[in-house]
Structures are given as C-alpha cells and as structure tokens.
Structures
1.
Amino acid sequence: YAAFKVAQSGRHMPYWGGVGNARQWPGNAIGAGIPVDRNPQVGDVAITMGGYYGHAMHVEAVNGRMVTVSQYNFVAGAYSMMTVSADNSALGAMQFIHFP
C-alpha cells in the first residue's frame, strides 16, 4: 500500500517497493540515497520496527509530533487511518522516508 501511494503521487518508488518487509525499507532507502529521519512530512512513508516485519504507512497529515497515517493490513486485510505520536505510539518510534 505505501509503495503504491508513493508511486501514485508521481514520486519515484525504487524497485524494492513492495518487496521484502517494512523493516528493510529504511536501510534500502539510505542505500539508494533517499533521506530517512524522525521528522515527519506529508507524503512520507512512516516505518515502525515493531513485530517481525515492521509496518509501512503513508503520512497524510502532520500536526507537531502527531501524525495521521493511512495504511493497509494494520488490521489484517483492511484499510485504515489513525493519528499517532511519531515518538511514542503503540507502534513504537517511527522513521520517515522522504521519497523525492
């Protein structure tokens, strides 16, 4: 889902989009020269490292350190949105990939 949202917005989604798991995305992005940090921006892909696979989400809105994300499979097989802290959510601290 997150890879689709990046591509749908007209930004470049590298070949690894949709391949592997969310835990691999920050390292893949850094390796491709794509900035990764803890500062959310609308349109970023937010990554959490919780669980075996991690989780990738699309950033829809930012209000300070609160981030509204859209996602698929947070609840198995379902689309959802939620607003969480970028720092201390139940999902854990997030990393944000700033696709060009």
2.
Amino acid sequence: MSDSTNIGKNETVRESRQHGFTLVEVLTVAAIIGILATMAVVSMRGGKRIAFETRAIAAMKNIGENQVIYYQRHAEFGDWRDLVLEGDLIDPGYDKFDNLADPRDTPIANLYSLHFILPQSRQCFTAVAYPLQSTVWHLRTYAVTCDGSIMNSYHHGYFFSMLP
C-alpha cells in the first residue's frame, strides 16, 4: 500500500510502506549460517574420530585381557594366530585388518590395523593399533603391553618411535 501526497499542481509523491531486508542484512544472516554450519561439521568430525579411537582402545583392552588368559594357560603370550586357535579368546570371524569394502569383514576396530610384537621368549607382548587413514581423521596410534598399560602416540611418542 502507498499513500499519495500532492506537492504541486501535477506532482504526486508516493510514500512506500513496503517492508523488506537490505542486502547487508541478508549477507549478515548468510555469514552467520555459514559459520554455524562450519562449526557443526567440525564438531561431528571430532565425534567420529573419538568414536574410532574409543573402539581401538576397547580392542586393545580386550586383547590385553585375552593375552593374560593365554599366558595363564600356556606360560607364554601368543600372537594373533595363537589367540584365534585357542578357540575362546578371539572370534575367528574377526579380521585383524579392517577391510571396509568387504561387508563380511567384522573388524575389531574400524579404521585400525592391529599388529602383535612378540620377543623370542614370548614373556611379553605389544599389540599395536595403527590407524589406516590417519591423514583423514588424524587418529592416534594405540598400544597395549604385557603389563596391561594402554598408550597412545600423542602422550607416548618416544615409545612408538622405538617400535619396529
């Protein structure tokens, strides 16, 4: 709607009562939405990284507990094959290397590859979970040793630098 006002003989000025947003207001709202969307995406990526790392830590705890059971039975620690052959320590359906493209693969820790390091004496072990795609998720490497301690590469970088 608009009102008309006569200024002179033949001149009429219309006063606009239309409401709208200026370009600056629209751009400000778009910038705020963009910032909030970016924060949401970054937050979700961090959550996924934490979920992957939590699964790796749980796998390391499970391997450590199963190694203790194996040690009690055989007076030495075993490698992956030994634990699988024992029958009740590791489900043979598990694969120590995650193949995410294979739907039949039931990995222990998504995006991690698990490795055992055993000395000749088999009186100690180190199980290490190496991230498969560290460049994408910036995942940390985790390890469990025969004393049951779980370490990560962020806090124990020197330990991981000494691994073969």
